[in-house]
Amino acid sequence: MKIKEKIENHIAILTLSGKMMGGPETQALHDHIKGLISDGINKVVIDLGDVKWMNSTGMGVLMASMTTLKNADGKLALARVTEKVQSLLMITQLIKVFLTFETVERAISNLD
Predict the structure, then answer these.
(1) Tell me, what DSSP letter sits at residue 32?
(2) Helices 56-71 and 24-38 sit at what angle, rounded to 10 degrees?
(3) Residue 80: count of CB within 10 angstroms of its CB
(4) What is the pTM for the complete model shown?
(5) What are the sequence ranges of the domains in the chain?
(6) Which of 6, 9, 18, 111 has the fewest CB atoms in 10 Å of its CB?
(7) What is the CA radius of gyration of the chain?
(8) Shortest CA distance to 72 belongs to which of 16, 15, 30, 108?
(9) Closest CA to 46 of 70, 22, 64, 65
């Protein structure tokens, strides 16, 4: 999994690509978010449009990232969630927990 970062109006947009299947690269997402918080950025949009698949470990990292941001008075939004990941969110009922948006732009406007 790869992480690309862009900062717009004090909101970090993290574009992920590949698979979120656990391992060091998935943990790197949570570490990246901790780094953003220490830099004073506590609003994050995670663009999942290029994530092919995610397992429970990947979901756990998203949950941990959201909790870390909430504890820092921040917010997390998911954008461009693929059908496969969307179905996983529905099955686990996490769709009720995460803010999800069709586009990165909509996610950004909801965090502002």
Answers:
(1) H
(2) 10
(3) 21
(4) 0.95
(5) 2-100
(6) 9
(7) 12
(8) 30
(9) 65
